[in-house]
Specification:
The protein has 2 domains: about 30 residues; about 90 residues, no CATH class. It is extended. By secondary structure, it is an alpha+beta fold. The chain has a 5-stranded antiparallel beta sheet, covered by helices on one side. The relative contact order is 0.15. About 40% of the residues lie in helices and about 30% in strands. The chain is built from 3 helices and 5 strands, in the order αβββαβαβ.
């Protein structure tokens, strides 16, 4: 009987420990997410600040927004946020090929997601 009680107590303590670690980890991460509309490029986007000088952009696609407009928007916003050249802009997903519309005209495209890293001053 004592062995069963010991196993139950150890199980409960380990579950509490895992829960405490998970909540402590979640509290240390602060993410600021802003969803907005850009009137110059006529597109909707989300800007997520991951860390100081590190951002993630998600440009939400629709049928009227082409890749050239979205990529120009990313370059413009990167310069406005970093306030200098030398930033690193990495496209994570959403890049289309040259013959994209000819091969699959009815395909629903994914959002354009990019990571931005500003140079340290």
């Amino acid at each position: 009987m004592d062995r069963i009680k010991f196993k139950c107590v150890v199980t409960v303590l380990s579950i509490n420990f895992l829960f405490a670690c998970a909540t402590a980890t979640k509290q240390n991460i602060t993410v600021k997410e802003n969803s907005a509309w850009d009137f110059d490029h006529q597109l909707q986007y989300k800007k997520i600040q991951l860390d100081n000088g590190h951002y993630q952009f998600e440009v939400i696609t629709n049928n009227k927004t082409n890749f050239q407009r979205m990529s120009a928007f990313l370059l413009r916003q990167s310069y406005l946020i970093c306030r200098q050249y030398g930033y690193s802009l990495t496209i994570v997903k959403g890049v289309e090929r040259y013959d994209f519309k000819r091969q699959s005209p009815n395909l629903i495209r994914s959002n354009l997601v990019a990571n931005l890293e500003c140079p340290s001053k």
